[in-house]
Amino acid sequence: MKNLQKLSGYLKLTFQFLAFFIPILVTVLWLFIDWAPINKAISQEYFLAPIKTPEGIVNFATVELTSLSKFIGCIGQLLSILPYILGFILLKSLFSAYQKNKIFTSTNTQIYKKIGWLAFLNGIFILPVTQVFMTIAATLSNPPGHRYICISCGTPHFEAILCGLLIIVISLVMQEAQSLQEENQLTV
Description:
Layout: H1 2-31, H2 36-43, E1 51-53, E2 56-58, H3 67-99, H4 106-139, H5 155-187
Antiparallel strand pairs: 1-2
């Protein structure tokens, strides 16, 4: 049990760091997107995946971005990481409970359920809206008639929806196990 408590302490700190650091990283990335090292990393697809438009695939490193394009892209990317940030915060509280040796509690099952709903809602709403923002950011500086708003539903959406549903079902199973555990403690 001590190993679980120790590992939970490390993971709690890791998730706390990620929840704080990633939004800052995304904001800095968009503020300095024209800086050569960041632009090169984007061209090699270390940051910012290319956007599919009707005219082809657009890499942000090859697009001349206006201030408005950068702002829309930053908002879009911050929106895309929002479920992860909220998930990190929930995982931090989950591992905090594990660190205190609270394993099967109703609070933990609620945390799992919230994480499942985050993944589910990410697949249904946030991924499509993010795609709209990123497409607008990539094509806003194009001449009239070549600006796009794209929305689609594909494998990443279904993966997020399926993962969310699976986590929700797991939380329901954990809730039943937790209820049985409480019932057994009362009958003994």
